DNA sequence: CAGTCAGTTTCGTATAATGAAACTAAGTTT
DNA sequence: AAACTTAGTTTCATTATACGAAACTGACTG
């Protein structure tokens, strides 16, 4: 077995116990025992620690546990970061290390997309992604995500702004968007730029609205179709995690 | 040594690490090492666990830690209780067990005080405190707290509503209020009721405003002056804790 | 009153958390 | 540029300590 980082098991378990409360606000000891598949005496002890410090409270009547005031207290001390570009940077860096390619973050601004954050690949041959760059919304994996997950009225206006050569092109494009929504990610190979490929996924905020688009991009001979399919689930997983960071 | 509850040491320590962030939003490993007086390798491992689960994040540049999105996520799952009577009940029950006397919670309503919550002592001889009871604001430990910590204009109106027999009485009363603000608690012996004594302390909400008054009361032969002085710091400690629970 | 179920406590054992110390990597001073 | 700091990371031997099986309690149920 290989442990990525040397952590403390008892603490890992205690934190898992806390996270159970994201599923249900009020839990009995046995509820938690089942959710964590730990033994009840273990859970009992972990809860004793959590309760003593006020991270959970036990209702005197029902014996059920809920999150305690310490969570509230800590949440008031959260660094108040507002913009995704700042808050998501650490995660993007991690992702960049993991995938070894350039990671970008896009938002839509009118009929363009804007790169609001990027971490560059460390490889010699790499896709350089300047922050602040404005790109068209028609082509590229990130663009397709921005269109596919735009809310209804925005989508209609975007589609009308795109100049399709043939009407059959629009048809194909719509089918592509539908597929993307099914898959949860979009890819592009040499679509916008010679020799470049990318995978893009949506990041939703707490209210399930599209907040920003995350993409990994690199030279298409390195970022092959195969590699992209490998990266897609990793991207979606990262996006889910990052979404939780947006208020 | 006697362990009150059997807890898990590693977890206790990890929670202490989290609580460090209430003092300063951004902390280095050594900062935490000093604040907790744990060894750095221990802190390092605890942070690894906390980071993996997203309870803290490490800024890639500065290497400093801040609270992570998991705290935010959990805080959104806090049971949204609004009224102090509900939210403070569990703590009042604990306090009642500890002190063995009746615990009450009061708010001011106009020129009266109202008991909005109570847990009854389990002893045979006890002070019975019906919820909803309305009592005068002049006498009793809780009343004095309500007056002493009322905001300026409310205090003036309250003082004018009290019918002091002699003007020297008002003088004395004001001195008493000043003393109470210095001590942080008020006591009363047979003041309002024959044979009854009480200690009362203010509970302040997050914005440092008087939210509610907490009192312990019982027969004056059991709740002696000595006992009351013993209970006062316990009450103030409990009140501080309870205040953090009020949004 | 037997029977189930949830929570609590005990206890022997093996594991896993610990802290000293060594190591790395920056940053500072000489 | 060598010699020191200073902060973070990793290793490792030791033992404390977290673990889970099982027994216990006590409340609720049929």
What's the layout of helices and strands?
Two copies of one chain form a homodimer.
Chain A: H1 9-20, H2 29-36, H3 40-52, E1 56-58, E2 65-67, H4 69-75, H5 84-87, H6 89-99, E3 102-109, E4 112-119, E5 134-136, H7 141-148, H8 152-161, H9 167-183, E6 186-189, E7 196-204, E8 210-219, H10 225-243
Antiparallel strand pairs in A: 1-2, 3-4, 3-8, 4-5, 6-7, 7-8
Helix pairs in contact in A: 1-3, 2-3, 7-9
Chain A binds a DNA duplex (30 and 30 nucleotides) through helix 3.
Characterize the structure shown.
- The structure is a homodimer of 247-residue chains.
- In chain A, helix 1 packs across helix 3, helix 2 crosses helix 3 and helix 7 crosses helix 9 (167-183).
- The first copy, chain A, is elongated, with a radius of gyration of 22 Å.
- The two termini of chain A are 37 Å apart.
- Chain A has helices spanning 9-20, 29-36, 40-52, 69-75, 84-87, 89-99, 141-148, 152-161, 167-183, 225-243; strands at 56-58, 65-67, 102-109, 112-119, 134-136, 186-189, 196-204, 210-219.
- The longest helix of chain A is centred in the C-terminal third of the chain and has 19 residues, at 225-243.
- Chain A is of the alpha+beta class.
- Chain A has a 6-stranded antiparallel beta sheet, sandwiched between helices.
- Chain A contains 10 helices and 8 strands.
- Chain A is 44% helix and 19% strand.
- The first copy, chain A, has 2 domains: 9-75, Orthogonal Bundle (Arc Repressor Mutant, subunit A); 84-243, Beta-Lactamase (2-Layer Sandwich).
- The structure holds a DNA duplex (30 and 30 nucleotides).
């Amino acid at each position: 077995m290989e442990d990525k980082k040397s952590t403390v098991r008892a603490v890992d378990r205690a934190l898992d116990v806390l996270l159970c409360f994201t599923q249900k606000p009020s839990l009995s000891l046995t509820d938690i025992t089942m959710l964590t598949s730990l033994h009840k005496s273990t859970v009992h002890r972990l809860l004793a620690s959590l309760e003593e410090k006020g991270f959970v409270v036990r209702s005197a009547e029902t014996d059920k546990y809920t999150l305690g005031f310490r969570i509230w207290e800590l949440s008031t001390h959260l660094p108040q970061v507002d913009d995704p570009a700042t808050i998501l940077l650490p995660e993007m860096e991690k992702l960049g290390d993991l995938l070894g390619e350039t990671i970008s973050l896009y938002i839509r601004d009118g009929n363009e997309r804007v790169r609001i954050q990027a971490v560059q690949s460390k490889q010699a041959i790499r896709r350089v992604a300047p922050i602040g760059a404005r790109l068209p919304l028609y082509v590229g994996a990130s663009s397709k995500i921005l269109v596919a997950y735009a809310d209804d009225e925005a989508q209609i206006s975007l589609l009308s702004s795109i100049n399709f050569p043939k009407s059959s092109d629009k048809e194909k494009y719509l089918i592509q968007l539908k597929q993307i929504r099914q898959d949860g990610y979009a890819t592009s190979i040499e679509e916008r730029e010679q020799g470049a490929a990318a995978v893009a996924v949506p990041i939703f905020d707490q209210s399930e609205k599209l907040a920003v688009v995350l993409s990994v991009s690199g030279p298409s001979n390195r970022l092959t179709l195969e590699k992209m399919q490998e990266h897609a689930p990793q991207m979606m997983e990262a996006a889910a995690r990052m979404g939780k960071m947006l208020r």
